[in-house]
Each structure stands twice: as structure tokens, then as C-alpha cells.
Amino acid sequence: MTTRRDFLTSTAAAAAALSVLPGGAQGETPVASPALPVAPGAELAPRPVVISSGNGIRGVKVAYDQIVRGTDTLDAIIAGINIQELDPDDQSVGLGGFPNADGVVQLDASCMHGPTKRAGAVGCLEDIATPSLVAKAVMDYTDHIMLVGAGAKRFALDMGFRSQPLLTEKTRQDWLRWKARLNPNDFWLDHDDDVKIKFSTGTINMNAVNAKGEISSCTSTSGMAWKIPGRLGDSPIVGAGQYCDNEVGAAGSTGRGEANIKVCGGFLTVEHMRQGMAPAQAVLKTLERLVAMTESRLLRPDGRPNFDIQFYAVAKDGRYAAGSLYEGADFAVCDEKGPRLETCVFLYPRGR
Ligand code: SD4
Questions:
Q1: Residue 333 binned pLDDT confidence (cut-offs 50, 70, 90)
Q2: 3-state SS string over the chain?
Q3: Listed range (41-45, 84-88, 206-210, 235-239) with the worst mean pLDDT
Q4: Using a 6 Å cutoff on CB, does residue 266 contact ligand 1?
Q5: CA of 260 to the centre of ligand 1 (A)
Q6: Is 246's C-beta closer than 6 angstroms to any atom of ligand 1?
Q7: For 47-345, which CATH class?
Q8: Fewest Cβ atoms closer than 10 Å to its Cβ: which of 13, 81, 171, 351?
């Protein structure tokens, strides 16, 4: 049993252990004890709650509604993620996702189901629009956790998934432009235009906790545009792209996967919550570690990373937050107040 005195002591210790908390995270109270399923004061955080990267604004509502009707948290968030995977206009995931340097769309996804402590993942999956569902099929129907490449595709076909071309006409045109602009001295003529290739939000991560405190997480992506064929990002890596522990919470990431992999950011964020940090503090602590692990070639003259990355976290008691290296990122939430975008806490203000 944790007494009130224990709680106050551990809270003070956790607060003291934290360095400066930029980005408006100061207001949050650290959780009392990792052993407590529901922290004191958590009655302010309603459950169920679903959070995701900003591009999941439609998906969090679908997932929330399903969870309220009794659907399992993992099935519900995958239904939310499927919306982006099947949307040809979202060029960061599934159908219409940016291809690799060869013009081939290779998709990554992973998921974790808190109540049963199971996980599944696929990497470099071609021709199947919903890698999140294939990752769940790996979890449901095999004794493995991760399948990649040709084996992942064969597995998906065996499981009844439909093979389809994933490169849309728009994405193919963007790829041709990228190729043509690569080298002014090659035999590809630059297109006679200055169309900017627009990078969309990039990847979807979604996490949910239901009224009973059951938690799940899932991440799906087409990865970095123009990547070297065969490249795996953080999204399919359990512990990096997403992680879920039913006793503590879930966390996931979007942004530069190479940076996340080195800090196992999904796992690390959940571990921060286990140590007593509130979600906002947990994501900021992970971002601080990530900056400390950034190699010098990726640092700007002011010492800050020349890329951005986000972490999303939900605690078992329903509190949630998302954090970004730089100010200005949004994330999507749905609870009893309905779907909305909220602002990420951050390490660095824009323009400073
Ligand atoms: C990756 N984390 O493959 C993904 C990409 C991403 O915004 O999130 N882009 O590295």
C-alpha cells in the first residue's frame, strides 16, 4: 500500500530529478508510484482515451467510438490507423505512401496488445496496404514477432490479404521529380517546373486505454521517402516505434526513425512513466536523451538537431501528452470531449 506520505516523498523526488521542463510541461504532477494502477488526481483524466499523431484526427474518433462499444483496444486503434493506410492522399503510410529510391513502396508497422502482453511487426512489406493488420496477424497467428520483406508478403497473402499496387500516380510523379533532381549531370532531365515535393505529416502512431485500463499501441508507416531499398525505420521495431506495458502505459513515435532507434524511445518513455513521471515529463525526458545521443553531423551550429521527432504517451490512468523537439507540432486526442488536436510540449521554441 502506498501511503500519502510515500506519495509526497516520491513525487518530490521525481520532481527534483527532472531538469528544466520546457514547453509548458511544468504544470503536471508526476505519478505517485509505478505500482499504483491509478494515480491520485487521475480522476481528472477520463478513460477511454485515444491519442495519435496529428494525421490520426479521423482515426482517434473511430477508435474511441469502437472502444466505447466494447471493441478491444488494439482492434479499435488499428481500425483508426486503417483510415490513413487506405487514404491515397496520405503520402506517409499505406496506399500512396512515398516509395524507396527504386520507386517501390515498402511499408513498416508494429503493434502491442497490453492485456495479453503480445506484439507483432512487419518490415519492408510490399503491395499490401494495411501493414498494421499484417503486424497484428503475425501477433495472432505465429510464434514470431517480426516478419520482413518477401517472407512478410508471402505470410500476408497466405492470411488472405489482397495484393495491390501502392504507388499512386501522384506519388510516382513525385518520385520521378526526386530522381530527376538528384544529379544535374545525369541523363534525367529536370522536370520543367518547380513543384515542391510535399512531405506530409509522416507515419501514424496511435495508443489507447479503455475504461478498464487495458492498453494497446500501434505504428504504421511508409518510412522515409526515397530510402535505400531494404531500410527499416523505427516504426516496426517494438520498443522504438511503439511500446505498451499494460501496468504502466503506451508510447510511440513519428519523425526521424534513425534517431529513435538509438534510444528505444517507445520503451524509454514507458519506463519514464513507470518511474513516476507524468506523460509530458516522460516524453521530454526521452527527447533529452535523444538529443544527447545525436551524432555531431546532425547538429546545427547552435547544437540542436537538424531534424524533428515526436513522442506520444498515454498512462494507464488516462493522462496523456505528446512532445516534439521543436515547437509547433500537434497531436490528435479523443476522449469523452470528442476528437481534437492538441499542442505538443517541446524542447526548443521555434526561431530561437
Ligand atoms: C521512419 N519514423 O521510418 C518513420 C518516419 C516518420 O515522419 O515518422 N516520418 O523513420
A1: very high
A2: CCCHHHHHHHHHHHHHHCCCCCCCHHHCCCCCCCCCCCCCCHHHCCCCEEEEEHHHHHHHHHHHHHHHCCCCHHHHHHHHHHHHHCCCCCCCCCCCCCCCCCCCCCEEEEEEECCCCEEEEEEEECCCCCHHHHHHHHHHHCCCCEEEHHHHHHHHHHCCCCCCCCCCHHHHHHHHHHHHHHCCCCCCCCCCCCCCCCCCCCCEEEEEECCCCCEEEEEEECCCCCCCCCCCCCCCCECCCEEEECCCEEEEEEECHHHHHHHCHHHHHHHHHHCCCCHHHHHHHHHHHHHHCCCHHHECCCCCECCCEEEEEEECCCCEEEEEEECCCEEEEEECCEEEEEECEEEECCCC
A3: 41-45
A4: no
A5: 9
A6: no
A7: alpha beta
A8: 351
